[in-house]
Amino acid sequence: MQKCFITSQTDALPSWYEAFGDALTLSCLPLPETLSANVLYWLDWHSLSDEQAESTLALLLAGAQKVVVMTSHPDAQRGMQFFSIGVRGYCHRFAVASQLCEVAKVIELGGVWLGSEAMQRLMQGTLRVAAAVDKKGDAEVLLAQLTPKERLVALEVAHGASNREISVTLSVSERTVKAHLSAIFDKLAVRDRVQLALILNNIDLR
Amino acid sequence: MQKCFITSQTDALPSWYEAFGDALTLSCLPLPETLSANVLYWLDWHSLSDEQAESTLALLLAGAQKVVVMTSHPDAQRGMQFFSIGVRGYCHRFAVASQLCEVAKVIELGGVWLGSEAMQRLMQGTLRVAAAVDKKGDAEVLLAQLTPKERLVALEVAHGASNREISVTLSVSERTVKAHLSAIFDKLAVRDRVQLALILNNIDLR
DNA sequence: CTTTTTCCTGCCCAAAAGTACAATGTAATC
DNA sequence: GATTACATTGTACTTTTGGGCAGGAAAAAG
User: Fold this and answer.
1) Are residues A126 and B125, on separate chains, in Cβ contact within 8 Å?
2) For the range B80-85, what are the long-range contacts, defined as Cβ-Cβ under 8 Å and sequence gap of 24 or more?
């Protein structure tokens, strides 16, 4: 698979040339009209303006090209965005030649290159998602302690509804809403509707 | 790098043998005491009981071995858990030989194998995280519209504090807290402290 | 068929929350 | 020095909230 290095600096990245010295460099944007297939593009992000870099990347991905984004300051969050739009690899501008070769091989084999740091952060994100799901379970537990009508009232409060609004949507008197709320406060051991709304949304109280 | 296939079925996975026919198979658990380094273990998850599989995996990872988990029904969520504990690859039991070879190569090169499906799901999770972060950003934007003292008051409310409590923690009169709150309600276009607490915690109102 | 739970509502009251109008002081900006 | 933004507090008022006491009705459980 051919390699193509996209940068605005002519003297950039010796390690890249060490890895793929025989490959071509595109230092003049915009890209040529016709993109050849089976080429792995390496985009030297910070050598370009953000607008240039973004439009170039969009063009490449629109052409179903394989792209590795190289940046001076790899940022896991940014990296994840890149992967989500189809970028195959995200690595440091100054990665050593041997590592660049490995990245290329992995991608040629149909894989995706994740640096160890990116992978770690990705995992942290995943774990955060899992934790969020777990906490959602906590809210279910809370709601399970309530009677059906109490649950309805609680859910309304959890979205910021006032007693009057709840009484309208549930077609009961405001006094009834208050009665349900008092029961809810007791059962869930909270002081007022604010705390109720927060715990139902898995937010810790102070 | 040597391959080692861990399964309880003797006749399992012809494609695996096609890919790594010369490699060894462990069909009798538990694992031998001494784990040789530089071996890539392929764990045939569903051929074992969950307990067996889990303890075997834990043993391998404790020995800092490289492990690929193979399963009949790849599940992105489960896969993420595997990666988070150090598994290098997660793929389908019936993947074709050529793909298995690719997985092996990627891992040998220090990468991690993510199937396309797993990658997609991972991205969805990431996007959810990103969305959460963005929303957190929204909260930051909201807070940015406030003066320093208003911010303090708002944050207290966001954790369920009452006016009296806030007046104590901030060492101001209750009247001042109310004044700040009125200003906050105006600026952030909410009706009362409940809605304020919710939007500051990135929860949609009804 | 009782008993219990849940649900509904009224009147009243107290506390909390929220608002209007007014005033003072301080710091920064112009 | 004047203006502006911010912070502070007061009095007084209205609204909302939370709850005590009391009384029903309906449904589920025993």
Assistant:
1) yes
2) B80/A123, B80/A126, B80/A130, B80/B118, B80/B121, B80/B122, B80/B125, B81/A130, B82/B57, B83/A119, B83/A123, B83/A126, B83/B112, B83/B114, B84/A123, B84/A126, B84/A127, B85/B57, B85/B61
